[in-house]
Amino acid sequence: MARGWVIAFASSKGGPGKTTTAIALGIEFSLAGHEVIFLDADPNRHLETWGQLHKRSRVRVVGGITEENILEEIRGAANQSAFVLVDLEGTANNALTYAVSKADLVVVPAQPSRMDLQEAFRAAALVNRAASVVERPILYRILLSKMPVLPTRAGRHAREQIEREGLPIFRTEFFERTAFREMSFHGQSPSEVEPASNAAENVRALAREVIELLNSPSAVAA
After folding, report:
1. Is residue 221 in some structural domain?
2. Which residues contact 100 (CB under 8 A, 6 or more apart)?
3. For residue range 38-75, what is the model confidence (pLDDT) as tens digits?
4. Which of 107, 126, 133, 192 is most deeply buried (CB count within 10 A of its CB)?
């Protein structure tokens, strides 16, 4: 098989929804029939803990990812699966830089607050620096996450500020829903628990946009 897509979830701080987004997308890809490997490079090990809750035939979670082994683990996983999703530590470190340099797409989640946007801008700058080092464009998008279901001025201002900075942003927003919080307890995504729910459709919309980006002319293989 051809090398799988590598998607890194990056932030320079904790709490914007990296792990939740990675889990939801990874399960969505597996439900579509793809092999998925998660790499947990966050010392908090939330992804690894989640992986112990519910076993899936097409999903594997690999923990213990460090800056010393992350490049080797990404290469190995990409040769074994259609999608490799790398959950990175919420700080700017070497592991984050290494993963970003090998990614086909970097997802930068940010809540609709000034502090979160500042951290998202720092993460975007890190992606651009990594692109300069490896001398190729690195595709990335900021994802507005944990958004209120009903439109708010804060959400609108957050999108406007990102666009004013000239940074790429997902059309899809990831909403704050109980179904996403419950994943940490029972291990199942909204698409598994209630496929017709708004939460499940939210994941599907994001997954469609991710696939669209990976297959776009702007995507450059790592």
Report:
1. no
2. 8, 10, 106, 126, 127, 130, 138
3. 999 988 888 999 988 877 789 999 999 999 999 999 99
4. 107
207 falls within a domain: yes
* Secondary structure class of 39 (helix, strand, coil): strand
Residue 195 domain flag: yes
pLDDT digits (tens, 9 = 90+) for 155-180: 899 999 999 999 999 999 999 999 99
8: nearest Cα among 98, 136, 114, 69: 98
| Residue written as token pair 């998202």 | 120
Q: Number of folded domains in the chain? A: 1
pTM: 0.93
By the 8 A CB rule, do 85 and 26 touch?
yes
Closest CA to 41 of 56, 61, 23, 21: 61
Phi/psi at 114 (5° precision): -60, -45
Structure tokens at 71: 């490049």
